[in-house]
Write a structure and sequence with these properties.
disordered C terminus; 5-stranded mixed beta sheet; alpha+beta; 6-stranded mixed beta sheet; 21% helix; 13 strands; Deoxyribonuclease I, Chain A; globular
């Protein structure tokens, strides 16, 4: 199965910059979006054979998430289940027989951490929500979680210490999520040495805020089978990258999927896996 997660930073603008072409070419089973920045009725999508699930923010032109799926789910949930946190369209959950799929756009702590308290309240509710799902069946989470968990996740960790997304509080909060029974799949990817002597994951992005988190159960089964939900090169670019067109944080390689022709959208893909094998709930095994 193919899962794609993309912070499009405004879907209407993205539609005029190659989104439909990329969507058709990828033919993903699940296409998850964050920061759609639109309201119901403001866009028409030509998505034959896809179920569309949108969560809109009450504030116009702000936040928003969506999932386009080939297969109709058993159930759909919008938000984290806490009324005061569910006005910004930040989450969609689809339930299937073998797993839950969650796409999320986590609140940004903002400049000078002005919204940090709200962010930490969200994190706790998000963690509790995922734990509750995980008690029923495996969970796959993808989206923009607005946190760089480790120093390797940033180009300049020292100068960014304490900034939104890299505050001690946010990093500790993400650790709590992992400790609750989840695995950050980006952390097991290969690490490469760059020309300047620093190290980066092969999937490094502008900042490692776009995560794939899975239940430890799923991760255990994946490792046991000698495979991974994530491909070694999970960042996709829908266009040929050039030195002038690539993300400055990734030099000229374009490995982050950033393309100025597409805006600041971030495209990352989970590789194609055999659902019957990788997500099978094997009887009698943890």
């Amino acid at each position: 199965m193919r899962f794609i997660s993309w912070n499009v930073n405004g879907l209407r603008a993205c539609m005029g910059k190659g989104f439909q072409e990329f969507f058709d070419r990828m033919d993903a089973d699940f296409f998850c979006l964050q920061e759609t920045k639109l309201q119901e009725g403001q866009i028409e999508m030509n998505l034959p054979d896809r179920q569309q699930y949108w969560n809109y923010a009450e504030k116009k032109g702000y936040s928003g998430t969506a999932i386009f799926a080939k297969q109709e789910p058993i159930s759909v949930r919008y938000g984290v289940g806490v009324e005061q946190l569910d006005t910004e369209g930040r989450m969609v959950t689809l339930e299937y027989p073998e797993f839950f799929l969650v796409t999320c756009y986590t609140p940004n702590a903002q400049r000078e951490l002005a919204r940090l308290d709200h962010r930490l309240v969200w994190d706790e509710a998000f963690r509790n929500y995922l734990v509750a799902l995980d008690q029923q069946k495996p969970v796959i989470v993808c989206g923009d979680l607005n946190v760089a968990h480790q120093e390797i996740d940033l180009k300049n960790p020292k100068s960014n210490r304490g900034s939104a997304g890299f505050s001690d509080e946010e990093r500790e909060s993400f650790t709590k999520l992992l400790d609750a029974g989840f695995t950050d799949k980006s952390q097991i990817l290969p690490v490469a040495k760059k020309k300047d002597g620093s190290f980066t994951k092969t999937s490094s992005i502008l900042s490692q805020e776009d995560f794939k988190v899975v239940s430890d159960y799923v991760n255990h089964k994946i490792k046991e089978l000698g495979t991974s939900i994530l491909d070694g090169e999970i960042a996709l670019n829908p266009y040929e990258q050039s030195k002038q067109n690539a993300c400055t944080y990734c030099n000229y390689r374009g490995i982050c999927g950033f393309d100025r022709k597409l805006g600041s959208g971030l495209i990352r893909e989970l590789d194609e896996i055999d659902q019957d094998i990788a997500l099978e709930r094997m009887k009698g095994e943890v």
